[in-house]
Amino acid sequence: MTTTLSSFKELDLGAPLLAALDDVGYETPSPIQAACIPPLLAGADIIGEAQTGTGKTAAFALPCLARIDLSDNRPQVLVLAPTRELAIQVSEAFQRYARNMPGFNVMPVYGGQSMVVQLRQLKRGAHVVVGTPGRIMDHIERKSLVLDNLKTLVLDEADEMLRMGFIDDVEWILGHTPAERQTALFSATMPEPIRRIAHRYLRDPQEVKIKAATTTVSTITQKFCQVSVPHKLDALTRILEIEDMDAGIIFVRTKVATEELATRLEARGHAVGALNGDMTQQLRERVVEQLKRGALDLVVATDVAARGLDVSRITHVINYDIPYDTEAYVHRIGRTGRAGRLGTAILFVTPREQRMLKSIERATRQKIEPLPLPSREAIADRRISLFREQVEAVLQSDDLDFFREVVASLEADGTHELHDIAAALAHMATRDRPLQLPNEGGRDFANAAPSPRTDREPRENREKILERRRDYADGKLSRYRIAVGKHQLVTPKDIVGALANEGGIESRFIGQINLYEDYSTVELPADLPNDVMGALARLRVRQHVLHLRPVTPDENAHDERRARTPRSTPSSERKPRKSFDKPARSKPARADSGDRPPRARKKF
């Protein structure tokens, strides 16, 4: 089954969803989206066989959102995912697509997070629940998750749930959902146990099979650079220094980011322009023309704005923000290496985005090699080399008689030696671009970057990977004050999103958030370095700067005396409170995303 659509506007998704897709840069539906969205909108069951990274999250999230009744706060959509990482990723996708749907709530549910917190949030209500099988079963047994109003059930990466031993749990959950529900099953492969479940629980399903084809070209050298969000700009600046680049495109996700990043790079001496969908056609053409004739060396662009861009000067494509799916990645790096020319594609990957890197490698069938961040010494060597080339070129081509007389007169004074005069002139010539980078007193983040990933699957070594990435002492949280609150219309999700996505603070290090009228407090690691503190203080939420700082003892006491307790939403993966008494279980203990060894499973 193959369907081709030229625009999302051909789908009956509604104006709010179409506007959100435009904001995130989606233009043309991928094959899995074009094939699955129409039948899911019509209420049909679906079996989708597609690799991770083909856009299948949007394939089921968009039709689910189109059918949501926002006036009913009971769970209408349940998504089962094999791991907590995928559950969080899918939840964030729902939130991203529903940005223009006021009142929409999605809740991730997974092991390792406080059960008390989850019970409180479920009591408030959620339109969509995304969770791992074990914890979903816990809530169904407790009756804290009631599925009487469920419209759609999605099984995401069903073959992974089989491999991890969750297939019995999945069947148990299916047996506790309404018989008239809509069901969508997605799997990279279709082993017999998964096919048996599909035939038993799905009603006359439509089958969609998408094969990811290799569409990258051999003339493009692909590299990835692992870097945390606060260090992205510095990493980009160093890479621009060290790479032998004629011209390049830097891809970001949002229109606002194109302007912000272009402004920052321009302040650092780069000839750069922005390219986004909000610009008039005349202005976009002017930027492209400047890039072609060499007036600009860099363009910061969104996916939509760069579609169809063909400039022979482009030698580098830098994915400053990782794309949402593999097809977007292929489209991006296709801006270089055209017509047999050589090109380089560099992908920035934060610790949370390792899964997407794996998906890109699987979809393109090409290994992306790690690119170490250039050190201060490497950048200094590069600048010295370029300076030497410039001096050699001037010595060979320019008429220097007048300047020789000037230098000779300086030497004739007898005050300075000739090499001292030459050193002073070199210093003057490179004052705006020093050949030797100053050591700012802190450690070089390029040398402190996370180690490149191994070739082993993340879930086989998850605890070791998490341990290696742990930058803060577990459990040692302190309260910080931020200058946004209810008057600025912010929500805990806004704050968590800024801290996690822009500030590089993993969700497990974010504790309780309290919203007040004109400020809020948030629990973060007590040992935040000064550079991270500075980066977080400059973050924006709903166009307001956070101005993050530690809470003083007097402020802490004042908050505790407040008569009205504010709404709080912890977002970290806290351990359940020891005093919380779980009701007696009628089934043996289960594993949830690798938290405990799985119980014995029957063989298929």
TrEMBL record:
Residues 453-462, 572-598 have a biased composition (Basic and acidic residues). Residues 37-208 form the Helicase ATP-binding domain. Residues 434-462, 550-604 are annotated as: Disordered. CDD domains: DEADc (cd00268), RRM_EcCsdA_like (cd12499), SF2_C_DEAD (cd18787). Its main location: cytoplasm. Residues 232-379 form the Helicase C-terminal domain. The keyword Nucleotide-binding applies. The keyword Hydrolase applies. PROSITE patterns: DEAD_ATP_HELICASE, HELICASE_ATP_BIND_1, HELICASE_CTER, Q_MOTIF. Pfam families: DbpA (PF03880), DEAD (PF00270), DeaD_dimer (PF25399), Helicase_C (PF00271). One of its GO terms (biological process) is RNA catabolic process. Residues 6-34 form the DEAD-box RNA helicase Q domain. It is found in: Cytoplasm. GO terms for molecular function: ATP binding; ATP hydrolysis activity; RNA helicase activity; RNA strand annealing activity. A motif (Q motif) lies at residues 6-34. Coiled coil: none annotated. This is ATP-dependent RNA helicase DeaD.
